[in-house]
Amino acid sequence: MRRSWFGPKQMGWGASPRTWQGWLVTALFVVALVGGNVLLRHTGWGAHRLNRLVVDGALLVVFLAVISLTYDANA
User: Fold this and answer.
1) Euclidean distance between CA atoms 69 and 2, whole angstroms
2) What is the CA radius of gyration of the chain?
3) Residue 70 binned pLDDT confidence (cut-offs 50, 70, 90)
4) CA separation (Å) from 39 to 2, 36, 56, 72?
5) Which member of 15, 26, 38, 75 lies 3.0 to 4.6 Å from 6 by CB, making a disulfide possible if both were Cys?
6) pLDDT tens-place string over residues 12-65
7) CB-based contact 73:9 (threshold 8 Å)
8) Residue 1 pLDDT > 70
9) Model pTM?
């Protein structure tokens, strides 16, 4: 059986990385979020907040999809 990348937090609500793959996905999400906003700000396309919100929202949807596909509530 494959090990889940994300599982429930020990305390509180939400998911927490359980394996190196989960930590890698989380780190890539943070890098893409910060790097994408910096890149958008310098290209001029990100001058409007709505454009940055759309990009950030798309990254969040992908990140949450990865979490939901690799989450195990029994982990």
Assistant:
1) 12
2) 15
3) very high
4) 37, 5, 12, 35
5) 15
6) 899 999 999 999 999 999 999 998 888 887 777 656 777 788 889 999 999 999
7) no
8) no
9) 0.84
Using DSSP bridges, classify how beta strands 15-17 and 6-8 pair: parallel, antiparallel or unpaired. Answer: antiparallel
Q: Smallest Cα–Cα separation from 15: which of 54, 28, 23?
A: 23
Distance CA(21)–CA(70), nearest Å, equals 10
Where do we find the tokens 């090990």? 3
What per-residue confidence (pLDDT) applies to 26?
A: 97
List the beta bridge partners of residue 15.
Answer: 8
Strands (E), the chain: 6-8, 15-17
| Contact present, 67 and 21 (Cβ < 8 Å) | no
Instruction: Give me 4's structure tokens.
Output: 């889940």
**CA 8 to CA 66: how far, in whole Å?**
15
